[in-house]
Amino acid sequence: MIHRRTFRLKSHPILTIKESEEIPFTYNGEQMSAVKGEVLSSALFANGIRVFGHHSVDGAPQGIFCANGQCSQCTVLVGGASVKACMTVVQPGMWVTSCEGVPVLPSDDESPEFSTTKAIETEVLIIGGGPAGINAAIELGKLGVKVLLVDDKKELGGKLTLQTHPFFGSTKDCYAGVRGIDIAKKITDELNTLESVTVFTSTIAVGVFEDRVVGLYKDGRYILVRQKAVIVSCGAREKGLAFPGCDLPGVYGAGAFQTLLNRDLICPTERLFIVGGGNVGLIAGYHAVQAGIKVVGLVEALPWCGGYKVHLDKLRRLGVSVNTSHTVVDAGGSEQLERITIAEIDENFKPLPGTFRTYEIDTLLIAVGLTPVNELYLKLKEFGIEVFTCGDSEDISEASAAIFSGKITGRRVARFLGNNISVPEEWDETERLLRSKPGKIVDFKPEKCDLDIYPIIRCVEEIPCDPCVYSCPEHSIKLQGDSLMGLPVFDGKCIGCMKCVSACPALAITLIRPSERSGESIVVIPFELDEELLAEGKEVVTMGMEGEPVGKGKIVKWRRSPTDKRRILVTLEVPSRTAHDAAGIRIFEAEKVKPVSEEKEYLNDDMIICRCERVTAGEIKKEILNGVRDMNILKAILRTGMGSCGGKTCTDLILRLYHECGVDLSQVTLPAGRPFVAEVPLSTFAGLEAGERNDEE
Predict the structure, then answer these.
(1) Which end of the chain has the lower number of beta carbons within 10 A, N or C?
(2) Given a cut of 70, is residue 690 above it in pLDDT?
(3) Domain membership of residue 667 as a residue range
(4) What pLDDT, on a 0 to 100 scale, did the predictor assign at position 693?
């Protein structure tokens, strides 16, 4: 076997790296290895492969974008049949080739005899095994309701399985202070104790039909499900962003990055840039730093970042450069991403001359928002089938809200089925609070306390969160106004236990106590990066709440938190005058780049909008200006939305073009939804065994 450089993580401050069984597979005639149970896209990334093929229209290189089965960028050939690499588990001896142009159809020597499709029945079908779907199933399962829960991944948990950070929200109601990866295990373990719940993993709900059945694709078989009610909890997909070069391999979604890094333990990049300052982008940046990846910078088009301020501050304290009122105007590279150019933009989102800067990077994460995965929900409603929805399929919000949304929906479905159960009145209010957008921000003015030992709490934005309140054994931390959205304040006695420092999901609490040296103070800060950065006696630059350098400090010692072994408590000795301001340690130096000397005019009409069919913005705008207001006509003319993704990645971008052209979106007719929302091989409907299929020989 040829030994290639591996891009697998060797260590991680939060995740456990275990020895895994390796299995061989072949890619373009070269022997490679994968980890047992790994999907092809991750195995290829682990072997340094970023380009998975070239498009038939213009030969453009293709790579991953969503890594979630929503697009078709990662298409490869297995035994001559096209598959999505992000959804295909590697099998020993699998023969994989890149997809170059249009795959050759297999020979069809004789027509097979079609078999009867298997049909099963259940009381409730739940589509989507993330936090909302699991908790809905738990509520129903506790009542003995017969439930079938299906999810397209090999493990339940949804995006929880990608989150290494502790969650915000309510400690009593939705696991606030617990890491997403641990929440996934807790709720999955609870689900597995319920006898009336059946779980199908690696199963895609592909269609809904007028005769009230739902079609599933599982283990190469097509199954029909009849049910009394359906819950759609499919989560969300990432929105795209169009700019020249946006389709290059190396430009992909923040969720895809977290999948590679935190689920599959692969380091997919050395130099990373992020566009989008919501929670998704900010958290992805922090996860990258955790894994030792250089985060070159982050830009946000609005004058402010829309994510939680504590997430933003956490990233800035590490030395990551964040620029608001900026965007990416161009991405360049031959076969994959090599550089990007950013620029400051005005209130009309137009680049300002003299502000263009170019960075050499290998990966750009797109984190510009999410849209509900609700195609099946809309079809179910259209056909009059009893359907409910929860989590991000209903409304985009934090995972803590999805957990509670699932609980409420589960009970509502149970009541619909005739069970004598109610939804407690306070649950609706809790869900409302958990879905709340960040509230007002107050000025932070740390003041010296009369106590020798006391915490500094840097929560200045109203968000739903309370773990610090429950962590204090002296009950000295309270929320203002007794609301989950209230700001925490310290008022009382501090015994220096540091439990609040350990509990804060945002790493926003430090502890101050006297030092034995005159003019010096001790500051204890929370830390979740590589412990090798913390040599005792090392001099470090201390950073303020918003990432401003405040002085120097010396690492006295560090230890694991007794309440969370994956969090480190670092004891710093700092000048007393800076003790109140010291909130973290700088890890990165800001990138020094020169402005672009020769600014060119970036031709936005050349940028790709429809990735599957390689349709440009200019082609679409021409038809819009010619009067096309029906996207079905646009599809007939240009083939937009006719690719494997079925318009999932381009519809929103096309609507933006209508808006840019001055068209009122109420005048635009959306494209008709396909009967199937995901691909199913034709051989599946014939009921052929794997060995009998021409497309898998």
Answers:
(1) N
(2) no
(3) 604-697
(4) 46
